[in-house]
Design brief:
By secondary structure, the protein is an alpha/beta fold. The protein has 12 helices and 7 strands.
């Protein structure tokens, strides 16, 4: 395993991030509209060789495998051993043999040159320490004219999933040290012009960025969403950083519950508004 993104590797293999395994099914449901938009933009075709970067527990890998069919091949790549173990467990349960999962860092993994037709990522590429080096390495993995398509988050002002829990936590526990706006993290690619510039620096061409407004549905409703927020994302991080107590956690989640209640749907679920950016580019000829 490369040390290029050692901090990210440590984070995604740490005990708190085991929650991503526990909540895999809930997260897949919540990201279903994102996955649909990503696959529509990527347009994987039967027989293609696809690289799924930052595949996690396989939420995007399995739909990609269905699209390329038995004559195609999908390689899911991630730095998180626990998430990959869950992905492999699901692969075996489904009996799929056109998928393989690899624990590796896409920034400097020695891909087979020109070994893929398409590289895809659902929120897995915003964490590179050196994004130009990472995109250049991914470009080398693509055949001439091969496509790179990925989803990244727009800013927190468009995504209450991030903004509301963080605001509630800070209101209760006090401010946290601000991270540089371009630091690796969920919001690192919210500036579309910056990202298309990174593509150019990495030798990718035909760069495009398309903001998409969609929803994050949770069929379990408000209780399930609040449970998820208490275990995934900004709130657990702030609680750890500020040594928050169980009482702090309960108070913050009460505020979050009130803020998200208006997003309930008639079927008993809940759907948060969200904005992503779909980025695409091609490898050189």
């Amino acid at each position: 395993m490369s040390e290029a993104n050692a901090d990210q590797s440590a984070f995604w293999n740490a005990q708190p991030e085991q929650n991503w395994v526990s909540f895999q099914a809930t997260l897949d449901a919540q990201m279903s509209e994102v996955t649909e938009a990503l696959l529509a933009a990527a347009a994987p075709r039967p027989g293609e060789r696809v690289l799924d970067i930052g595949c996690g527990a396989g939420g995007s890998t399995f739909p990609l495998a269905a699209a390329v069919g038995p004559s195609g091949r999908v390689t899911g790549l991630d730095v998180s051993a626990p998430l990959l173990a869950r992905a492999e467990e699901r692969r075996r349960e489904l009996g799929l043999d056109n998928i393989r999962f690899v624990e590796a860092d896409a920034q400097d993994h020695p891909f087979d040159p020109a070994g893929c037709d398409l590289a895809v990522s659902r929120f897995g590429v915003m964490f590179f320490a050196d994004p130009v080096a990472a995109f250049a390495n991914i470009a080398r993995a693509l055949r001439p004219g091969g496509r790179l398509v990925f989803a990244a988050w727009a800013g927190p002002e468009h995504n209450p999933w991030f903004a509301i829990p963080l605001q509630a936590a800070i209101a209760r526990l006090g401010p946290i040290a601000p991270a540089p706006p371009e630091a690796p993290g969920p919001m690192a690619f919210r500036d579309a012009a910056r990202v298309t510039g990174l593509f150019a620096a990495a030798g990718l061409r035909e760069a495009r960025a398309e903001p998409i407004d969609l929803g994050l549905p949770n069929p379990g409703g408000l209780d399930a969403l609040v449970d998820l927020i208490g275990n995934i994302g900004a709130l657990p991080r702030v609680l750890r950083e500020k040594a928050g107590t169980p009482e702090d956690r309960a108070a913050i989640l009460a505020v979050v519950r009130d803020a998200f209640a208006p997003y309930a749907t008639p079927d008993g679920g809940i759907r948060l508004p969200a904005r992503i950016i779909l980025f695409s580019a091609r490898a050189g000829d």
